[in-house]
Amino acid sequence: MAWAVFICLTVLCIGSVLAMIISRNQAHNALFLVLSFSSLGGLFGLLDAPFAAVVQVLVYAGAIMVLFLFAIMMFNLKRNPPGGRRTLRIVLTGGLGLVLLAELLVAGREALGGGAAAAHSRDPAALGRLLFTDHLYAFEITSLLILAALVGALALAGRKEGT
Amino acid sequence: MIPASAFFYVAAALFVLGVLAFFVKKDLLTQFMAVEVMLNAGNLAFLAVAKALGKAEGQVVVLFVITVAAAEAVIGLAIIVLIFRQRKSIQTDGLKDLKG
Questions:
Q1: What was the ipTM of the complex prediction?
Q2: Å between B79 CA and nearest CA of chain A
Q3: Is the CB of residue B29 less than 8 Å from the CB of residue A26?
Q4: pLDDT value for A126
Q5: Do A149 and B71 count as a contact with CB atoms less than 8 A apart?
Q6: Taken in order A139, A144, A150, A155, is the CA torsion positive or negative?
Q7: pLDDT at residue A143, rounded to an integer
Q8: What value does the mean pLDDT take over residues A44-61?
Q9: How far is B11 from chain A (nearest CA, A)?
Q10: Among partner residues B7, B17, B84, which is closest to A14 by beta-carbon distance?
Q11: Structural domain harbouring A140
Q12: B-chain residues within 8 Å CB-CB of A69?
């Protein structure tokens, strides 16, 4: 049963990223990514990380992708001009992708090679305790980072045309 | 019971697809989405290793990565808006100002 869910979610996730690579319409790309990130949230849930799964669906599939869709609507893009000679680029990228994939597979086999999954607390309260004790400084710095990003985005894009 | 290494392999495939999308696509917005795919693959790998080692630290890292990705999306989209205002296009082929 778990395997069936895992395979469905994996096919959905990877298939929609592939569809994003093939499609040339930005709005469709963003919607494919929403699908992909939602199914990735399901995979997080299968990994005994319910809080990360919920945050993934809310923040990534919800907030960030809606931001992308707003940007796409704002740009009012013309249809993409048909791209000339992309074969060299695609061949080189394919080579790079193969090498990278082989490297990651070897790394995964070395690091995780068939070790049984250890017992693992899946309870969000333990996660919160860890976040607010051991990692408190990192958490506070994150809030500063968000504030800086807000101010920076306003300073960059909030300016009027002439100034 | 699904082994954690299966999730790790999915994360590897997703990361490679993100790299491919980044290099094949030619408009800034889609390339930026490819970066988000790579960040998500990293998150999945963190959770897989956290499960294999039985530690909750991986989930903490994932929360931080999602927060930083949100900040990064805001700044990146602001920069893309600026580029679009100046050039009326977001195709990366037109960005050749640094070519001497």
A1: 0.90
A2: 7
A3: yes
A4: 84
A5: yes
A6: negative
A7: 94
A8: 92
A9: 9
A10: B17
A11: 125-158
A12: none
Q: Is the pLDDT assigned to residue A163 strictly greater than 60? A: no
Structure confidence by residue, pLDDT tens digits, B9-59: 999 999 999 999 999 888 889 999 999 999 999 999 999 988 888 888 888
For A74-85, the pLDDT digits (tens) are 877 766 656 566
Domain of B71 in residue numbering reads as 4-90
B67: nearest CA in chain A?
A142
Cβ <8 Å between A71 and B6: no
Contact B10, B43 (CB under 8 A): no
Q: Cβ distance A32 to A69 under 8 Å?
A: no
Tell me how many domains chain A contains: 2
Question: What is the 8-class DSSP label of residue A115?
Answer: P
Query: Which CATH number does the domain housing residue A32 bear?
Result: 1.20.120.1200
Q: Across the interface, do A55 and B66 touch by the CB < 8 Å criterion?
A: yes
Measured between beta carbons, the chain B residues lying within 8 angstroms of A59 are 66, 70
